[in-house]
Design goal:
Blueprint lengths: L4 E6 L3 H11 L4 E7 L3 H11 L3 E3 L2 H5 L6 E4 L6 H10 L3 E5 L6 H14 L3 E4 L6 H11 L6 E9 L19 H20 L9 E8 L6 E10 L3 E8 L8 E5 L2 E5 L11 E7 L6 E5 L5 H12 L10 H18 L30 E2 L8 E2 L2 E3 L6 H13 L4 E3 L8 H13 L6 E6 L7 H15 L4 E6 L8 H13 L3 E7 L3 H13 L7 E3 L21 H10 L2 E2 L9 H5 L8 H7 L2 H17 L3 H10 L8 E2 L4 H7 L9 H7 L4
Parallel strand pairs: 1-2, 1-4, 2-3, 4-5, 5-6, 7-10, 17-18, 17-24, 18-19, 19-20, 20-21, 21-22, 22-23
Antiparallel strand pairs: 7-11, 8-9, 9-10, 11-12, 12-13, 13-14, 15-16
């Protein structure tokens, strides 16, 4: 039986030819197919590399059932679309660096690989070379003592062709993404090795760059990374400047020089030099290698195929690297045309947004809202850029989520703007439920409510919100004044239903009684804290919890919809809370108590029995209450969204709820 991997290459550019050459020398794989945007280009490539199957489209390549793995060799802006489509075609993926334009796109690619159970690796070929392995060994062995400074440069002077991908903003050009990604990944690798970890993330990123007036990309740039343990890194990248392409690592007892870190010659030995304080001559460490970089890269894929990712460059390493590159570009103010929202009507997979057929989302109803409301609500409180907004909200919608929570004050208004732009671009206004909030303290008055609502509608690019909530209460204002103005906006069609966040149940009762007496509409929902964990101390002044027995009884009796925040107790059930660990001051202040740790113990026991995560049990506790609940979740990454969804499949009986809450 032939166990060699049958490869297809997607794209016919220079890097595709280099990989084809390396693959030809591999004992683990063979090149079976090539895909191009034209049949002529595919045929030309096929003749050069003796490729059995030549396809005139990328789609045709992905439909070839004999092709097992795809090497994506397109320009940067096309990586996300075709990596996702390759994963959906059940192809293993080696994607040329950078894996995507930004961290958000990288998350979507990783999620596609996870969902479709395929191998995925970002093609940093230098990571597959024994020289890099030796460098890590030297750092970990303490060859130069405590690491203090890392210097990494990758630069070259390309032709001044504004149509080439290197100097074209529309093609993701510039040095940071093209070669700065190498320097960033090397610095993170070395810093990690110095700390006994696979890689490390910087706690601060600063940068400077020359931005071409015509190219609008970083033609040469520098960055300074600050890592834990007082480790610094200086990075240089350029596509219009030829520098010294080396890596140097300075430690307390000496330094290491890697003369050819990125492109060590094929099949030849390379050298790493160790300079020790007090020694006249450096120690030369010779590293033997019998294969080319790209042969080693293909063989690495084969070696870890069954594990779906390689320790050479695993998924978290890739995501961390892209996050740093985002910060570097943000520091020098480089934004790509592909990252702007204008005209972005389709997902990054270049297709209309639609709910997955296998969605497990459940729905409920809220009085006054004429649409079903997803039982999980996506918090739009941290998404302030288009790429992050689009990827996170697209993913939630594809999972069946249709309710989105935001507020006037979130991101100084940017969150409302991003949500509104996403809804408009995707053409979803009548398919989604917008929960918006305004009139936060100290501007919690009927007058400010109206002013902020009108501003919010403008930001959201809509003429109504489905549910509008007062973000706080102001007990100095009679409830009737709030009810009057909310009804005015409801009658004008600006809101469909309304309620309050962090309102006491007594004030809610008073407001609804006043509305009833005056033949007006009252609160349809509230958004207070509710979770299995008791809130020991308010997160902030004015925050109100409704987790106690009296509040639960009232909610059950009235049937009032609850849209709770911090339904998972800010990570208390996600492994962040441990007896004796007081590192997170807020977590300790708000959630640490003997009874909460008893609840955590029971959650862990039930989670183990049911084969789910503890946070799934904690969220299911909220979902399975005898009154309607629509818990808000606030994921920053797609993986966090994914981890919340199994809670929808968990059924808890009344006895289960009582046992978890120590009521047995």
């Amino acid at each position: 039986m032939d166990d060699t991997i049958k490869w297809g290459i997607l794209g016919t550019g220079t890097i595709a030819r280099i990989f084809a050459k390396g693959l030809a020398e591999s004992q683990t794989g063979t090149l079976m197919a090539i895909g191009s945007r034209t049949q002529e280009a595919a045929d030309t490539f096929g003749e050069s590399w003796i490729v059995p199957r030549c396809y005139g489209s990328y789609e045709a390549l992905l439909t070839d059932g004999d092709v097992q793995a795809i090497y994506i060799a397109t320009p940067h802006p096309l990586h996300a679309e075709w990596a996702i489509k390759a994963a959906e075609a059940k192809k293993h993926i080696l994607c040329e660096k950078p894996i995507a334009l930004n961290h958000a796109e990288a998350m979507a690619i990783v999620e596609a690989a996870y969902r479709n159970d395929v191998f995925l690796m970002e093609a940093f070929m230098y990571r597959c070379h024994p020289q890099t392995t030796k460098l890590v060994e030297l750092i970990r062995s303490g060859a130069i003592g405590q690491v203090r400074l890392i210097q990494a440069t990758f630069s070259f002077h390309a032709a001044s062709d504004l149509e080439s991908r290197l100097l074209n903003n529309k093609l993701g050009g510039g040095g940071i993404l093209d070669v700065g990604c190498y320097c960033t990944s090397m610095a993170r690798l070395i810093a990690g090795a110095a700390m006994g970890q696979p890689f490390a993330e910087p706690i601060r990123v600063t940068g400077a760059a020359h931005i071409g007036v015509r190219s609008q990309v970083d033609e040469y740039a520098v960055a300074t990374l600050t890592f834990p343990g007082n480790i610094l890194a200086q990075l240089v990248s350029a596509v219009q400047l030829k520098g010294e392409n080396t890596v140097r690592v300075f430690g307390r007892e000496g330094s290491i020089l890697v003369p050819t870190p990125w492109l060590p010659p094929a099949g030849q030995s390379t050298s790493v030099f160790i300079y020790k304080h007090g020694e006249a001559q450096p120690k030369e460490v010779v590293v033997a290698s019998s294969t080319s970089l790209y042969t080693s890269e293909a063989d690495t894929v084969a070696a870890f195929l069954s594990e779906r990712q390689s320790p050479t460059m695993n998924w978290n390493d890739t995501l961390g690297n892209m996050h740093v590159l985002d910060q570097w570009r943000q520091a020098v103010k480089v934004v790509y045309a592909a990252e702007e929202p204008a005209g972005k009507l389709l997902t990054i997979a270049n297709r209309p947004l639609a709910v997955h057929p296998d969605s497990i989302m459940k729905y409920g109803r809220i009085a006054g809202v004429d649409k079903p409301v997803s039982r999980l609500v996506m918090g739009v409180d941290n998404q302030v850029t288009w790429p992050h907004t689009a990827v996170m909200l697209d993913d939630f919608f594809e999972r069946g989520g249709n309710c989105f929570d935001t507020a006037f004050i979130y991101g100084d208004g940017q969150c409302e703007k991003m949500l509104g732009q996403w809804v408009k671009n995707r053409g979803l206004r009548e398919q989604v439920v917008i929960l918006d909030k305004g009139a936060h303290t100290p501007r919690c008055t009927p007058e400010w409510l109206s002013k902020q609502l009108m501003t919010s509608l403008e930001r959201l690019q809509t003429d109504y919100v489905d549910i509008y909530m007062l973000h706080h209460d102001n007990t100095e204002v009679p409830v009737g004044e709030f009810i009057d103005v909310l009804n005015e906006h409801k009658q004008a069609g600006r809101i469909r239903a309304f309620g309050g966040s962090n309102w006491s149940l007594e004030r809610v009762q008073e407001a609804n009684q006043w509305a009833k007496e005056h033949e007006l509409t009252g609160f349809a929902a509230i958004s207070n804290h509710f979770s299995l964990a008791r809130m020991v101390d308010p997160l902030w002044a004015g925050s109100i919890s409704t987790s106690d027995e009296k509040a639960r009884a009232w909610l059950t009796e009235t049937g009032m919809a609850l849209m709770p925040w911090s339904s998972q107790a800010r990570g208390f059930f996600a492994g962040r809370a441990e007896s004796g660990d007081y590192s997170d001051e807020e977590l300790v202040r708000c959630w640490y108590s003997h009874d909460n740790f008893q609840r955590l113990k029971r959650v862990n026991t039930m989670a183990k029995t049911r084969g789910v995560l503890p946070i799934n049990i904690a969220l299911a506790y909220v979902l399975c209450q005898p009154f309607p609940t629509f818990p808000l979740i606030g994921p920053r990454q797609i993986s966090e969204t994914r981890s919340s969804f199994p809670a929808l499949t968990i059924e808890l009986t009344t006895e289960d709820l009582r046992w978890l809450n120590l009521d047995d």
